[in-house]
Fold this sequence. Notes:
The chain is of the alpha+beta class and 343 residues long. The chain contains twelve helices and nine strands.
Amino acid sequence: MDLALTEEQQALISAFAGLFGRPSFPDQVRAAEPAGFDAALWRKLTENGVLAMAVPEQQLGWGASLLDLGLVAEQAGRSLVPAPVIECQVAARLLAKAGSAVALEALAAVLAGARLVTLSLHPIRAGVANLVPAGAVCDALVSVEGDRVLLVPTPEDGRYPVSNLGSAPLADVTVAGGSELVGGSAGLDAFESALDEWLVLTASALVGIGAAAHELVCRYAAERRAFGGVIGGYQGVAHPLAEDATRLDGARLLAQKAAWALDTHHPRSRELAALAFAVGSETAERATYQAIHFHGGYGFMLEHDVQLFYRRARGWARVWGSADDAYRRAATARYGMAQLRSA
């Protein structure tokens, strides 16, 4: 396993950093609040292949690896991009893998920019898909009901936006029926594999959030003076920030290893995906907390940029679950539910 970035991957990072609007941050992010969706940016991203890259070449996509998508996701986190990049990429990949006529028709519309199809992270229960990422703005969602993976249309009067800390376009969606893409055990396996991909890509995005907040506070600590020197020169500030830098490097490497494992169908891929999410979530929460803390009073002002990272480090992850939930998923993948119950 060689995680050194190629020249093509470096170019990919630069290209998407520009597309995500890093030069205009944070104006673009603030303008999209509280809904968390910039329609013009989304059109720009789809026109430039943010979904096509996630789809295999057989379905007229670019055939990017999950590791490539993780590099893009980290840039999305760094820019706090107000667009549902990860969930729509994963949904497109699931449509491509399903391969049915319904799935491929929907995929063609997705790649043409005519439909926004997202992934529901939680199974449909009692006719409702809860906390659907991009549920407030999507045209359809892919979810699981029982042992079937369904493509479900989402009319506007069936979407109920949910206010959230991360300013994301979440919604509870009423399901009135849908088209089956995959059924039986194959359907459940397909859904769990899509969830693995979402966990890995979200882990990379969380690393991006934490890294950007860490860079912000390091610049501040190198300029802010107190007691005759810059605050970054005091051990009480310098040591925690150094620890965060190390933790972020580790979380990034784990997310990349998990992406590699999924790409290569490694037997531990599900376990690594869950661990990457857990570590990425905890690391981003810690790094953004430290960023708030060392900004002092500025950290608690909505006018300051640092709070944008703090809120999303928590809100973007909790739409699926906590780090503890991810650790349980990893343990189940490693040891099996029966062994855990008997322990």
